[in-house]
Design brief:
Blueprint (H helix, E strand, L loop, with lengths): L1 H16 L3 E7 L3 H16 L5 E8 L3 H11 L3 E3 L2 H6 L5 E4 L6 H10 L3 E5 L6 H15 L5 E4 L6 H11 L6 E9 L16 H4 L3 H17 L3 E9 L4 E3 L16 E3 L5 E8 L4 E7 L8 E8 L2 E6 L5 E6 L10 E4 L22 H16 L7 H20 L9
Parallel strand pairs: 1-2, 1-4, 2-3, 4-5, 5-6, 7-12
Antiparallel strand pairs: 7-13, 8-11, 9-10, 11-12, 13-14, 14-15, 15-16
Helix pairs in contact: 2-10, 5-6, 6-11, 7-9, 9-11
Length: about 400
């Protein structure tokens, strides 16, 4: 008996030393919800955290589906109204993984209720909504709350390391930034109409879905904002079949077999950074054969950096100060314990994947909450991206096309 009492006392002592818990409530449970669930579930098992995230509740409109998602991903409870989720005493962090049309309403309500907030990108569907969200975040900041937008590609270790190299001046003054993000899931004109193809739900098409990521990455890596853009956009397939048995919530679904596509399929734009460096961007979901091809290259007076998401543990680096006879791009394998986030993972050379970015995102948000510091990217950062997206759309609408004079 004495041994049992000693064991229980020891267990209680360990429990007393354990970090506090923070309950997470997530709104939305599909693709992004699954990815965020993985992040919350894993972060405390890998990193030493100042607080342990607890998967308190997940929310979705379909009671059966959200309960199944809760069971699959490890959430303790399921709700069907996001207002009920925000009201729960066991939820301190609200994680928003819904379509963009609901981001502002949920985020502002959660912040006003005293919760910390993580919101998926793009921050909103309009600049006005993003401004309201940022204002709510600033009010909440005075109460000790934090609000972060989920640009997860910042948390690829190679990207975070690239930012460090650029900030250290390894490229010198920037001259060029070029970024492409190419997918092909909309090549087939018979792919069904989904909420991502409806402006009232998604805000925009490839521009907001993919372009938001590459605008954020360009500004993050360069360490400066875009100050001007010139753009063209195109919708190649202007109507699509309505999903069988899933017409509720889709505009144009009044019994017709096809619905209108009201967003862009592709966006192409150039830009200028505050320093005068030039930038080019391409985002499309109709590039046959490209599944998730995000590529970025930065050229400066002292060197260049290039990254390809399909080789996400690698950077290509060229030091232009080396003698020409021996210089050139070299491969940096970003798996060393001295690289960002890698101290907690596997031995050098053992690669990470896409899902790890969400683990790193959860880690960083929990540290920001514990230290009372503003997380990055903040809602203000998300607002800056939203302003760029709006400028791209405005430019595309007004852009004049000049026909060259043929001989």
């Amino acid at each position: 008996m004495a041994g049992k009492e000693e064991t229980e006392t020891g267990a209680e002592a360990v429990a007393d030393d354990a970090p506090p818990t923070l309950g997470v409530g997530m709104v939305g449970y599909a693709f992004m919800g699954a990815a965020h669930s993985q992040g919350w579930r894993t972060a405390g098992r890998v990193f030493d955290l100042p607080a342990r995230p607890v998967l308190a509740a997940v929310c979705g409109r379909d009671r059966t589906a959200v309960r199944a998602a809760a069971d699959q991903h490890g959430w303790a409870a399921a709700e069907t109204d996001w207002r009920d989720l925000i009201a729960r005493d066991d939820v301190q962090i609200v994680d928003i993984c819904t379509p963009g049309d609901s981001h502002a309403e949920i985020a502002v309500a959660a912040l006003d209720a005293g919760k910390h907030v993580l919101c998926e990108k793009p921050l909103a569907n309009s600049v006005a909504e993003a401004e309201a969200m940022t204002a709510a975040a600033e009010r909440a900041r005075g109460r000790g709350q934090v609000a972060m937008v989920g640009f997860n590609y910042r948390r690829v270790p190679a990207m975070t390391y690239a930012r460090r190299l650029i900030a250290e001046g390894r490229l010198g003054a920037l001259r060029h930034v070029r970024v492409t993000y190419l997918q092909d899931w909309l090549v087939d004109p018979e792919f069904p109409l989904t909420w991502r193809l409806q402006r009232e739900y998604a805000g925009s098409g490839a521009l907001g879905d993919l372009g938001a990521h590459i605008v954020d990455l360009a500004q993050y890596l360069a360490g400066e904002p875009l100050v001007g853009v010139s753009a063209i956009t195109e919708t190649f397939v202007r109507s699509r079949p309505l999903p069988a048995g899933a017409t509720e919530g889709l505009s144009g679904a009044g019994g017709s077999e096809r619905g209108a596509v009201t967003v862009d399929d592709a966006a192409l734009f150039t830009g200028r950074l505050a320093s005068g460096a030039l930038a080019s961007f391409e985002a499309t979901r109709t590039a046959a054969g490209r599944k998730n091809a995000l590529r970025i290259e930065l050229n400066g007076e002292r060197g260049s950096l290039a990254f390809d998401l399909e080789r996400l543990n690698e950077l290509s680096f060229h030091d232009h100060t080396e003698p020409a006879v021996s210089s050139g791009f070299r491969r940096i394998l970003v798996t060393e314990p001295g690289h960002p986030y890698l101290e907690a993972w596997w031995p050098p050379g053992h690669a990470l994947g896409y899902e790890h970015t969400f683990v790193h995102q959860a880690r960083d948000l929990l540290h920001a909450i514990a230290t009372g510091t503003s997380p990055e990217p903040s809602f203000a950062d998300g607002l800056q991206v939203q302003r760029v997206l709006a400028a791209v759309e405005e430019s595309a609408e007004k852009n004049a096309v000049y026909t060259p004079v043929l001989p």
